[in-house]
Amino acid sequence: MPPEIPPNEPTSSNPPPVYIPQPPPEIIPPQHYQQPYIEGQTSGTAIASLVCGIVGTMGCCCCPLQAAALVAVICGHVSLSQIKANPSLQGKALAMVGMILGYVTIISYALLMLSSLTNPELYKGIQEAMDKAKQEMQQKQELPKDTT
Question: Is the pTM of this model over 0.70?
Fold first, then answer.
C-alpha cells in the first residue's frame, strides 16, 4: 500500500490550484451637478427699459406715468449701445420690448392729443368721463359700510 499523503500537499498527479485574480469591480465616479455656464449678466438699463415701458403703457389715463414711456425709450437705446459695446451683457430682447412699448405709448398719446385738439368734443367727452369716474370713486369712499 502506498504511503498516505495529506490532502493539502501537492502530488505529482494532483497539481496545485492556480489562483486567477478577478478584475476589480468597475467604479463609477460620482456625477456632480454642474450649473450651466452663464456668459454674462443682464443689463440693468434693459430691465429699466422694460419696466418703464410697462408702467408707461399702464399710464394711459394718467399723464405723469406717461413720462415713463420716454424713459423706456431712452433706457432702451442706452442699453442696446451698452450691449453692442460689451458682448458679455445680455438683455437685448428686454431693451427692444421696452423701447417698443415706449414708442407705442408715446405715439398713441400723441395721436390722442392731436385728435382732441382737432376735435374738441372728443376732449370734452374724455374729460366728462374722467370726472364722472372720479365722482363715483369719491362717493364709494363716502358711503358708510353695511354692518349686516
Answer: no
Q: What are the tens digits of pLDDT across the range 67-76?
A: 899 999 999 9
Query: What are the cell numbers at 127?
Result: 374729460
- The rounded mean pLDDT for the chain is 80
Task: Give the type of residue at 13.
Answer: S
CB atoms within 10 A of CB 95: 28
Question: How far is Cα 8 from Cα 16, in angstroms, rounded to an integer?
Answer: 9
DSSP the chain: -PPP--TTS--SSSPPPPP-PPPPPPPPPPPPP-PPPP---B-HHHHHHHHHHHHHHHTTT-HHHHHHHHHHHHHHHHHHHHHHH-TT-B-HHHHHHHHHHHHHHHHHHHHHHHHHHH-HHHHHHHHHHHHHHHHHHHHHHHSPPP--
Helix 44-58 to helix 92-118 angle, to the nearest 10 degrees? 30
Q: Domain boundaries in the chain?
A: 44-136
